[in-house]
Sequence to fold (238 residues):
Amino acid sequence: MCKSSFFKSKSKHWWQIWSCGHCQTNASVASDKSAETRAKILMAAFEEIYQCGFQAASLNNILKNTNITKGALYHHFKNKMELGYAVVDEVIFTTLKANWIDPLTETDDPISTIQQILAELGAQMTAEDVRLGCPLNNLSQEMSPIDEGFRERITAVYSEWQMAVEGACERGKVAGNLREEADSKQLAVLFVATLEGCLGLAKTTQSLETLKQCGGGLIEQLELLRPVKEALIKSIRK
Fold:
């Protein structure tokens, strides 16, 4: 039996943090109960969409997996499309923010930070992740061509990610951890596109090894962006 999907485990972690942090202090407040119900719907919707795609996702399955009434669902989301938008805004973006955007926002050594994230996340990837792919990339491919609301939201997520990489690169140049001649904006676009392409290729080929090779290649290529002095020092230490 294959291990649980990394993406599912990360989104569940988002739910656990939300429910524990939110409900411990306000468990008796009716509005918090309503918010908890909404979060449960979002979590179930994410899993259904991730497994089946948005168009094939079933509201009945979402209700079944949450034991929430149809009335409660429509109290929080007027239709399936609004629910899908919320999954992008509140589950997928929040998960990506925790894994990528926040660490990049806090560093002036983007190469080491990205390499560390790639190594840590790569070690957690499973055959289930290869089978299902990246949830953001999946929705981008499925919904961006046919729905402007999805396209705008997905574009916004990618833009936030790219800006985090770009900002880290700019700080890295000032700190002497990235080559001064590097084009930060270009690198940010290239990195995000390459990583998402790696995940897409691994999904198409159903090969975890392909994903690991691509991640390893990215880690190696990032070394070429270090200032010559820093790269030499790191090489000597090895």
